[in-house]
Amino acid sequence: MTKISLSGAILICIVVSGSLFAQSFPNPFASAHNSAAVDSVQFELDILDVYADDPTMVHQVIFRDPGISGWDEVTMDELYQACTLQTHSARVELNTSSSFLEWYNRSENDTAVATQSPKNSDDAFPVPAYLQADLGADPVGDAENAAGSYLDITHCYASYSDTKLYFRLDNNGGGFPTSSGFTWFIYSVGIVDPDASDAVAYALVYANVPLLLSPGLYGISATDSSFTKISDIETSISGNSLSMSCDISSLTAQPGWSDWPPPSGFIGASPVTATQSLTDLVANDIGKYVIYMPESNLADFLFNQAPVLSNGAVEVPDSGMVFASVTYTDSDGHLPVIRDFHCESEVYPMTACEKDYEIGALFETSATVDSTGWYHYYFEFSDGAESVSTVLDSTYVEVVSYVAGDADGSGEVDIDDIVYLVSYIFSGGPEPDPMEAGDADCSGGVDIDDAVYLINYIFSGGPPPCSP
After folding, report:
1. Please, what are the domains in the chain?
2. Which of 93, 314, 349, 453 lies 20 to 30 Å from 299, alpha-carbon distance?
3. What is the pTM of this model?
């Protein structure tokens, strides 16, 4: 290993310019699930509000029959919002040669990409195109101070295996020359461990700067403006595509690297090109910032266990309100495509915040009823193939209707209500029914202040009695 201190801090500049270093990005994908399937399958993705609130962000599920190399994709729509998450959903027709479906999620806006990824299980290099995740296109012609179109990034891709990370960098033509006279060209993909215990970033670099840079994996320290070549990398150039690969073990062997994958579930990444002269370093082009999650999903529809509902309950804490909850458990981890609370003839969709379906997810909803009486209810869920329901039960709801300030129950607030309150407070007259109707100022009790409040309202244009 060779450690080089350089006042220009070439790789520090590359990574910082790429908005990679010293960033803190939570994983936007809180959870992702699929349903069981008969003729179709439903996918759901929970996204943190901080990402989902961006109206330009497009969320997709990308899927394929594992027996073929082509992928299909469908855009996901918002299904519901609960807690700090937005749940997005898409349904696709199931048409595979087996009972399996491989899939992963991807989100993108104008400046960033968050994506899971196909796995290059056989460690093929260069990685076949269908096993690479799209890390985003970059506008053609936006490279600055570039000697040629080869410094203009047009696209970046990634893949992984159990032992390696793979990146592919595409440019706008001209191959990947590394120098012209005393000017050197640098092509890199920077990566960051969001859970690192030190201030070190990394980059896969393709360059040949005499005495300074050769193709390799470099660690970059922010504390002493130095970089260290950690290991060699594998490279391959085909036309306007540069493929690079490093061993994951080279990263995890570093003192500050957390784990693989990092506990946050992703690494940060971004492609950068730069030009080094005898006196200066200039960043030419920077691709999108990427939250890259080295994981894909395989849905197996051959066997399915019916879900289980437990701990179904209703509470009636307020007049006219019914709060319902039930725990949905699915040993296959399948999401519920039906998640309903039935109360008399009305159906209320239920939502959950945390969705570990294998151990149980708490679903909740509320209903409003308009009359006093017994209400029958039950819960109904389906994983897409099997439906389950609870037994029919009932709860008593008391609905009390009143107008604040209408102490005598006439239906209007007038001088008679003042007389009624004075009689109740000072002469032992009948109490308001319900008592809350006499609480004109909503203080929580009925007293002389309520009579004064009504006098001010009726005769002096004061504020009206508060609403119940």
Report:
1. 2-298 (no CATH), 308-397 (2.60.40), 400-468 (1.10.1330.10)
2. 349
3. 0.81
